[in-house]
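Sequence of Probable nicotinate-nucleotide adenylyltransferase (Pontibacter qinzhouensis).
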Amino acid sequence: MKVGLLFGSFNPIHVGHLLLANYMATNTDLNTVWFVVSPQNPFKQSNTLLHEFDRLHMVSLAIGDNPDLGVSNIEFQMPKPSYTIDTLTYLQEKYPSYEFVLIMGEDNLAGFPKWKNYESILNYHRVYVYPRSGSATTDLTTRLPNVTFVKAPVLDISATFIRDCIRQGKSVRYMLPDEVAAYIKVHKLYL
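Predicted 3D structure, token representation.
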């Protein structure tokens, strides 16, 4: 079983995340893609970060019954902030017969050598990199072992933009799955 891991705060999950994950699961050699909800990203500080269980629930609502996608709360019981290498090590121990592939945006690739034990990630795992608009071009996809560029379609949309729209009372229709939009509205999130 080859599992793609898409890490993020998903604050909130939006159609761009879903489009990317579904493409990776159905147009590459991956069997499935799991959204790994991160309680706290060591590179991001945010006072608008919802509780991790709200974000996890919204991801579950968003993927619904799609058999190609899954969601993981593996980092909830790990020390915070969570580091990708620690999560990958834990997952590999828990699922020894699975092959885990890290999925990351091109914008994160330039900073990848700053990640904790990034060499170990590259030694034991493949990394699939997808394009991001406005990213500086880098030759790291050709220089780093086990890194593959995947020309996946991406939407130029961000959770920050969506949160700003919600705070300003603007429509977020078509940016979020209906179930996620309804959950945010009912619980008065991001106001």
